[in-house]
Amino acid sequence: MDALGLAVFAMILLWLDDGPILLAVDDTLARKRGLKVYGTGMHHDPLISSRKMAVTNWGHRWVVLGVIVRFPFCADKYFCLPILFRLYISKQTIAKRGGVYRTRPELAVEMLQILCAAHSDRCFHAVGDSAYGGRSVLANLPSNCDLTSRLDLDARLYDTPRKRKPGPQGRTPQRGRKLPTPKKMLEGRTKSLTLNL
Would strands 56-69 and 21-31 be described as parallel, antiparallel, or unpaired? Predict the structure, then answer.
């Protein structure tokens, strides 16, 4: 299936400029019925959930990697064309049926590594929501791929850990010095706008 996605991407390359290729990564719920369908489980349903009430539904949770393109015949619009996808299987289903559990960010990283390795001469820039902006993705991104994601304004950020000097000095540090929160970093640098959508 990956070979088909990469072949589709090779055709999409004809519409893309020489600059960085914009990618989108997200997950979606495909509702299913029946208890015998492989890989189904109870997943959060963002379409019918609200801030006050989270709703779950039975179905498949797909992690999808798409290419964002703008076609010459429709230059005022952008389209996201899915090229690679992975089925996310919950911990409960893996515990019952066996296998190796992988998180949605791990599945996203796997697809990014496949695409970036197949086109190592190109630069990529992926965008994703806050589920894909954590350390598990950022620490494993291919060298020719950047990522833009959303952070909470009160997120705890740290610099990279300092290099350890040789010799017995205890445990290797996992974090560097503490950085200001995004809210503190943005103080005095932002402007509020009201949009009429």
Answer: antiparallel
pLDDT tens readout for residues 161-184: 877 777 767 777 778 888 888 888
Tokens representing 188 are 């005095």
Token code pair at residue 46: 């963002």
pTM of the model as a whole:
0.78
Neighbours of 84 (CB within 10 A): 25
Tokens of 4: 């088909």
At 112-132, the pLDDT tens digits run 999 999 999 999 999 998 888
pLDDT band at 134 (very low <50, low <70, confident <90, very high): confident
Classify residue 162 by burial, with Cβ atoms within 10 Å: 0-12, 13-18, 19+. Answer: exposed
- Determine the Cα–Cα distance for residues 37 and 47; give it in Å rounded to an integer: 22
> What is the spatial distance between Cα 179 and Cα 55, in angstroms, rounded to a whole number?
36
Count of positions (residues) in the chain? 197
CA angle, corner 96, sides to 32 and 60, nearest 5?
20
Task: For the chain, give the percent of residues with pLDDT over 90.
Answer: 27
Q: How many CB atoms lie within 10 A of CB 70?
A: 14
182: helix, coil or strand?
A: helix
